[in-house]
Each structure stands twice: as structure tokens, then as C-alpha cells.
Amino acid sequence: MIVACYSTQPHDRRSLEAAATGSPIEWRWLDVRLDAHSTPLAAGAAAVCCFVNDRLDAAALGRLADLGVKLVALRCAGFNQVDLVAAGRLGLPVVRVPEYSPHAVAEHTVGLMLTLVRRLHKAYARVRDGNFSLEGLLGFDLHGKTAGIVGTGRIGARVAEILLGFGCRVIAHDPGADPRLAARGVTYLPLDHVIAGADILTLHCPLTRSTHHLVDARRIAATKRGVLLVNTSRGGLVDTRAVIAALKTGQIGLLGLDVYEEEAGLFFLDHSDEIIGDDIFMRLPTFPNVVVTAHQAFFTQEALAAIAEQTVRNLVHLGRGEALEALVGA
Ligand code: NAD
């Protein structure tokens, strides 16, 4: 069974090959992203294996279906990159990896918070440069601060637990409150109350039509002045232009991003020898109070192994004609 694996990085290849040992999967490694133009590379494949920045719109899905592709296997949790209506119309099932390591993303999220709050990114560069001055490195305690969590699913719940451990007061918004978290002291509130009450605001809800630009100019204006904003979920949750304007006025005091709304074509690749044309993105690293990582929150050994295992299991089910696990929209 041929599987056309798009957006392949060396680590994908290593972990998927290891997980597929002894299976009937024959990988076709492709380093290009999947979009309508790159679909011919899937000719003869039973399935395509895709990642977060592949573009599975109606045109791409239609061409895959015409080629006889039987399954879209996402090797990630989020599925905002797929036109599910088109996939349903074409009868093309989409499977994903709903849970691999929520700890990986939650720990990276808190890592971004600590980096910003204690200015570790500046301290690291200073000490290497022989500059041992503390001027400009003054931080604040997380203990006693109010953390606002938007989305308390697998990842948001772990972030809540870690921050409770730091002694934060945790407030949260989620259409489905988690009674276990409520019992541990998390207070569920309407979104606008979380936005207004948080010293630290962190986003863990999925990107959908209704959550696109959930953090926009209006909501930023309603935050506490100097708020610490972290987004490790999906770039489209945040209006980057509005965030830049708020960094300039000090309304946002600290910003940690692992995702960016126009990250496709930028993240996961080495552009260090090129001129990057995205002026909005390139404004972000010019702020001393901003830390951006390039969609690496998931990137731990444990998460990669779990992603590969579930992806191979999903593909083997297809090969054997068994019921598919982890169907998106099921
Ligand atoms: P999950 O499905 O377990 O949890 C999402 C939660 O968001 C659910 O509890 C849901 O009820 C809630 N939600 C939905 N709409 C909401 C809204 N409008 N406001 C508030 N809450 C809302 O998902 P998860 O595994 O916790 O992952 C969360 C997100 O993290 C994913 O959607 C994905 O985009 C992102 N993610 C990022 C990385 C990374 O490497 N940066 C890795 C994995 C996942």
C-alpha cells in the first residue's frame, strides 16, 4: 500500500519508518506541501499523509479523489487545514491523531511564559556576550497571578494543572467546562471575563470559523494593560496586525507565539539565507518582549513516537479494510 507522505521532514521519516516496520506500508516521501498543484505526486497512492500546513481545500481533495486516493491521514491533532464539507461530499475519510502528548504542548506553553516573564531569551544572549548586568531583566512571580485559559481540552487542561502548581489563580473559558478542573479550583467564566481578568492569557481552543481572530483589536483593548499573551494553538486565532499595534502601545506587555496565521511556507524550513517577504511576521522579532518559536510545541520524542504509531495504525486499518479509528467529524 503506497502512502504519499507530504511535507516530510527527516524526523517524520525516521519516526514513521520505525513505526511502520513489518507493515505493508510503502512510503513515498515528499518534501513539498500538499495543495491542489502537488496532488499529482499522489498518483497510485492509497492514502496521503499530511501535516499542519498542507492545504486540503476542495480543489486538492477533488483531485486526490479523482486519483483514487482512499484516505487522508493527518499526522497531527488539528484539522482546520481540511475542508471537511468537501471531504464528506467526496466520500474521502479523514483521520488524525487526536491525542499524542498534550504534555509536550502544555510544557512548551509554560516554557514560553517563563522565558518571557524572566527574560531568559535576553539573559542567554547577554551571558554569552560577557554582559552580566541585570538591568532590564526584572521579571515577576507567576505565583499569585491570574492565568486565563481559552479552551480546556487535552492541552489547556494540562496547562491549567501546571499553572495551578505554580500558585496561579486559573480562570478559563470553554463551552464544555471540565468538572475535574473546576473541582481543582479552575473558575469557568464567559470569554470576555477571562480576557478582562487575566494577567496571563493562553489560547488552547481549535481554529474554526467562529474562533478565527478570537483575539482581535477589540478584545486586546479589553485585556489588562501589559498582559502576557501566549498562543501555541493555531495562528489564525490571533489578529497579528492588532497584536503588533498593541505591542507598540504596551497594551500587550509580553508575547509568546508558537504559531502564526501565515506560517505555511515559512515554518519548518530554513530561510536563513533568504530575504523573508512577510513584513508583518518580521516585525515580531524586533520587539524585545516577544518570543516566537516555529511550531515546535509538539516536538518531543514522546509526541513524535505517538504520532507515528497512531498514523501507522490508521493506515493499516485502511489496508486491512477495517473500521477507521480517529475519524475527523465522526
Ligand atoms: P481538544 O479538542 O482536546 O481541546 C480543545 C478545547 O477547546 C475543547 O475543550 C473545546 O470545547 C474547546 N473550545 C472549542 N471552541 C472553543 C471556544 N470558542 N472557546 C473556548 N474553548 C473552545 O484539543 P487539544 O488537543 O487540547 O488541542 C488544542 C489545540 O492545540 C488544537 O486545536 C491544535 O490546533 C493545537 N495544537 C498545537 C500544537 C503545536 O505544536 N503548537 C500541537 C497540537 C495541538
How would you explain this protein's 3D organization?
This protein is an alpha/beta fold. The protein has two domains: 2-100 and 301-320, 3-Layer(aba) Sandwich (Rossmann fold); 102-292, NAD(P)-binding Rossmann-like Domain (Rossmann fold, 3-Layer(aba) Sandwich). 35% of the residues lie in helices and 15% in strands. The chain has twelve helices and twelve strands. A seven-stranded parallel beta sheet has the order 8-7-6-9-10-11-12, sandwiched between helices. A five-stranded parallel beta sheet has the order 2-1-3-4-5, covered by helices on one side. Helix 6 (154-165) links the parallel strand 6 (146-150) and strand 7. Helix 1 packs across helix 12. The structure holds nicotinamide-adenine-dinucleotide.
Quick synopsis:
The chain contains twelve helices and twelve strands. The protein is α/β, with parallel strands linked by helices. The structure holds nicotinamide-adenine-dinucleotide.
What is the CATH topology of the largest domain?
Rossmann fold
The tally of beta strands, per DSSP, is 12
- Rg over alpha carbons: 21 Å
SSE string, helix = H, strand = E?
EHEEHEHEHHEHEHEHEHEHEHEH
**CATH architectural label of the largest domain:** 3-Layer(aba) Sandwich
Mean pLDDT: 97
Please specify the SSE layout and strand pairing.
Blueprint: E1 2-5, H1 10-19, E2 26-29, E3 47-50, H2 58-66, E4 71-74, H3 84-90, E5 94-95, H4 102-117, H5 120-128, E6 146-150, H6 154-165, E7 169-173, H7 179-183, E8 187-188, H8 191-197, E9 200-203, H9 217-221, E10 227-231, H10 240-249, E11 252-257, H11 279-283, E12 290-292, H12 301-320
Parallel strand pairs: 1-2, 1-3, 3-4, 4-5, 6-7, 6-9, 7-8, 9-10, 10-11, 11-12
